[in-house]
UniProtKB/TrEMBL annotation, chain A:
Signal peptide: none annotated. This is ABC transporter permease. SUPFAM superfamilies: MetI-like. The chain crosses the membrane at residues 102-124, 145-164, 176-196, 251-277, 283-302. Keywords: Cell membrane, Membrane, Transmembrane, Transmembrane helix, Transport. GO terms for cellular component: plasma membrane. Its main location: membrane. It is a multi-pass membrane protein. Belongs to the binding-protein-dependent transport system permease family. It is found in: Cell membrane. CDD domains: TM_PBP2. GO terms for biological process: transmembrane transport.
UniProtKB/TrEMBL annotation, chain B:
This is ABC transporter ATP-binding protein. It is a peripheral membrane protein. Pfam families: ABC_tran (PF00005), oligo_HPY (PF08352). SUPFAM superfamilies: P-loop containing nucleoside triphosphate hydrolases. It is found in: Cell membrane. The lineage of its organism: Bacteria, Bacillati, Actinomycetota, Actinomycetes, Kitasatosporales. InterPro entries: AAA+_ATPase (IPR003593), ABC_Ni/Peptide_Import (IPR050388), ABC_transporter-like_ATP-bd (IPR003439), ABC_transporter-like_CS (IPR017871), Oligopep_ABC_C (IPR013563), P-loop_NTPase (IPR027417). One of its GO terms (cellular component) is plasma membrane. GO terms for molecular function: ATP binding; ATP hydrolysis activity. SMART domains: AAA.
Length: 317, 508
């Protein structure tokens, strides 16, 4: 066990390094973009003197490395800095955007795991027969449809034609829980592709596992089908699916920009788009830190799950 | 005499070829029936038929009857039927849970545990409870085997099919397996033993069926079969191995390979200590000992595959670098290694002859065309000719592949050839012919030193000198005849005795 523990510590340290690298890269890229927050603020009157004045007021005239160092020093005691555009602390941006994103992600994952695994097991049980072909072709078809197209289709049918559900979350602010109807379509769109990839992975793993000598052995000794499938075959089938699930959760926590934009949900994705448009570097950097850390933690979790499911493989890296 | 399972006129056909044809087997409670024959003779197919398992796409005719359908199975590689993602006890608990379903809820758990522990003790796994919490890969091969047997006993199988239970085991372990199967039979269970290990068959079987090419060529009580075999194939199978292949060539002048103060570690633990060891040019040294005694580690140190050691390995008086990477081409060529699992030692996608020729190209800088010609020559010299060697390794049998591996190693013109258990896992006939190949190699390459890692005293008899390892210590060494006929160290005594005992038991 101590081997696993030291591996976790090493992975976390490595993850911190990776996050720092991401932040540096993001900073360098936003610096490289033409224009800055001062130009954006100057808006309709791009008078060079005015821009220079704004720049001085926002301390944008200081060298880039000094600004980065200041910001990094603040980060060490939990201060994400303040927005260049609104002067509000970056942490309030993150907190506001995190709520809706987390809600959507949580709901999606809660539905994703049972649906994906269930469909995969179902297809594997009927390998090569009608049910399998139906599940396999449907998942392949749905997987091929991009989120924005699927979202537009759903809005057209269920919101505009049938009028069953609100087309967007406009007007509900961050209080989405109070209006569950507004969540249905976004969650369905978010679910569509991950369910397909998860189901296909579980199906492939289950077919192998159900065909294995250890499952044949357990079947020979009279175990029930349900127990055989879920207690003996499934643990061997879900290791690759766990990795895919971690990537999906990471994708969801990043605020799926297309879906948030389509349904006008004020999540992290929306915050990110606005911040980039306004050249609001501290907000972009704050988001980079959050995304980086969640990626590191989620992948670590997935690797731990995989390690538990394939105890032979040991730990690497 | 209760017949608990019966196979009548079984015929199994795959791809238009009958792999089992017209086989009749009757299994009687408390008796051990053995199916013997070379690999590929249809033993396993017959055994699996009792379990209702057939090769994919097989056409089956005939009748397989079992009393209540409960047949236990202990496969050759018990690890394959243990779920790698679940702890070792998972299946046992599930079986016990099914059996205790009718009990009141409060008693179920205790009763299930009771049953599992009972089955474990029947399978001679007394400390089984701690074992059940481990993962299958954390158990030894013997523990895995007993665990799988415990599953069969827990289910209440009236018949147990044991497929090659002693293949690749040392003499002491073999004896344990023999005792264990005898104990299973004493409990009134019919045992179908599939084996090419004749010592074990002789020690255990009440009834023997000799198979060849899918047919039973002879069957009868073990005693009759042993003392008066009727079929020529049976006689060939039972023939005692030829006395070791003549006097070995005299050893050359100085030692070609020497080991000084070797201490090898795995992580922090010392697994092997060898102060002095030497191999003369043209000499043949057998390293014997149980599994886990450090034999393979010693071989790996010599070949540069195990770096974590102190002390020196000297080739012609010059220390060899510890790591394979640090050795020069010449040094790599001088010490060659043949692995136990020949199939794993070949790339399955490239023709065998190309892989053999590669040694000459890589290690001796021979031009590819000439290397190929040399490889074909070397293969032919070991009895491998014709089309199959130009195709992938799956066209060759295990014994043929092992010859190809030998040819590949010899093509490097080594001064020292290390053979690590190259005969274990092969049936008697194949094993004997491989030993003949080794003896022939010693005659055709008189300057090459040979190191045989083995737990089989028959193989060791081929050597001029023997080193005995136990628990990582070098407990005895000397000329073969001396060590094997007058063993001094208690371990050596027990090793030679168990071998003798296995054979002796069989004669009773």
């Amino acid at each position: 066990m101590s081997g696993v523990r030291s591996w976790v510590v090493r992975r976390l340290l490595l993850g911190l390094g990776q996050t720092a690298a991401v932040v540096l890269l993001v900073f360098a890229l936003t610096e490289a973009l033409p224009g800055d927050a001062a130009v954006v603020l100057a808006g309709d009157q791009p008078d060079p003197d005015r821009i220079a004045a704004i720049r001085e007021a926002m301390e944008l005239d200081r060298p880039a490395h000094e600004r980065l160092l200041d910001w990094a020093a603040g980060l060490l005691h939990g201060d994400f800095g303040t927005s260049l555009v609104s002067d509000r602390p970056v942490s309030t941006y993150l907190a506001d955007g995190f709520g809706p994103t987390l809600l959507l992600a949580g709901l999606t994952v809660a539905l994703l795991v049972p649906t994906g695994v269930g469909l995969g097991v179902l297809a594997a049980r009927h390998e090569g027969r009608f049910v399998d072909r139906l599940v396999s072709s449907t998942t392949l078809g749905v997987y091929a449809v991009p989120e924005f197209a699927f979202g537009v289709l759903l809005i057209t049918v269920f919101a505009l034609r049938l009028g069953w559900l609100p087309p967007t979350a406009v007007g509900y602010g961050t209080d989405l829980l109070g209006h569950p109807a507004a969540l249905v379509l976004p969650v369905v769109v978010l679910l569509s592709r991950p369910v397909c990839s998860l189901a296909r992975l579980v199906r492939a793993g289950m077919i192998d596992a159900l065909d294995s000598p250890y499952v044949a052995h357990a079947r020979r000794y009279g175990l029930s089908g349900v127990r055989l499938r879920y207690a003996h075959a499934l643990p061997n089938a879900v290791a690759p699916a766990a990795q895919q699930l971690a990537r999906t959760i990471d994708w969801l926590l990043g605020g799926v920009i297309v879906v948030e934009a389509l349904f006008v949900i004020p999540g992290l994705g929306t915050v990110l788009i606005n911040a980039v448009a306004e050249r609001d570097v501290p907000v972009v950097q704050g988001l980079a830190v959050v995304f980086g850390l969640s990626t590191v933690v989620l992948n670590l979790g997935a690797d731990l799950v995989t390690h538990r499911l394939t105890p032979r493989a040991g730990v690497a890296a | 005499m209760t017949v608990v399972a019966e196979i009548r006129k079984l015929r199994v056909e795959t791809g238009g070829r009958a792999i089992v044809d017209g086989v009749d087997v009757r299994l009687v409670a408390g008796r051990i029936t053995a199916l013997v024959g070379a690999s590929g003779s249809g033993k396993t197919t017959t055994g699996l038929a009792l379990l209702g398992a057939y090769p994919a796409g097989a056409r089956v005719s005939g009748e397989v009857r079992t009393v209540d359908g409960l047949v236990g199975y202990v496969p050759q590689h018990p690890g394959a039927v243990l779920n790698p993602a679940r702890r070792a006890g998972a299946l046992l608990h599930d079986i016990a849970r099914v059996q205790t379903r009718a009990m009141p809820r409060a008693e179920r758990r205790a009763a299930a545990r009771e049953r599992v522990l009972h089955a474990l003790s029947l399978a001679q796994l007394p400390d089984g409870e701690t074992l059940l919490r481990r993962y299958p890969h954390q158990l030894s091969g013997g523990q895995q085997q007993r665990l799988v047997l415990a599953q069969a006993l827990l289910v209440g199988a009236r018949v147990v099919v044991a497929d090659e239970p002693t293949t690749g085991q040392d003499a002491l372990t073999k004896r344990r397996v023999v005792d264990q199967l005898a104990e299973v039979a004493r409990q009134g269970i019919a045992v179908l033993l599939l084996s090419h290990d004749l010592d074990v068959v002789q020690a255990l079987a009440d009834e023997v069926l000799v198979m060849r090419d899918g047919n039973v060529v002879e069957s009868g009580p073990a005693d009759r079969l042993w003392h008066a075999p009727r079929h020529p194939w049976t006689r060939e199978l039972l023939a005692t191995p030829p006395a070791s292949a003549g006097p070995a060539p005299a050893e050359g002048a100085g030692p070609v390979l020497q080991v000084r103060d070797l201490t090898a570690r795995h992580g922090g633990t010392v697994v092997l200590r060898a102060d002095v060891l030497s191999l003369g040019a043209g000499g043949c040294l057998a390293v014997v000992g149980r599994s886990g005694s450090g034999k393979t580690t010693l071989a790996r140190c010599l070949a540069g595959l195990h770096r974590d050691h102190d002390g020196d390995v000297l080739l012609d008086g010059v220390p060899l670098p510890r790591s394979l990477r640090a050795r020069s081409r010449g040094q790599l060529a001088s010490v060659q290694y043949v692995f136990q699992d020949a199939r794993a030692a070949f790339d399955e996608h490239r023709p065998v002859v190309d892989q053999v020729a590669r040694t000459a190209v890589r290690l001796r800088g021979v031009a590819p065309d000439r290397a190929r010609a040399e490889a074909l020559d070397a293969l032919a010299g070991l009895g491998l000719t014709g089309e199959p060697v130009r195709r992938g390794p799956d066209e060759l049998s295990g014994g043929e592949l092992q010859r190809a591996a030998l040819a590949r190693a010899v093509l490097a013109r080594p001064q020292v050839l290390v053979c690590d258990e190259i005969t274990s896992g092969l049936d008697t006939v194949t094993r004997r012919s491989l030993l003949d190949v080794l003896a022939a190699l010693r005659r055709t390459r008189p300057d090459m030193g040979l190191i045989l890692i083995t737990h089989d005293l028959d193989v060791a008899a081929l050597a001029t000198h023997v080193v005995v390892l136990d628990g990582g210590e070098l407990v005895e060494q000397g000329p073969t005849r001396e060590v094997l006929s007058r063993p001094r160290h208690p371990f050596t005594v027990s090793l030679t005795e168990t071998s003798a005992l296995l054979t002796a038991r069989a004669r009773v």
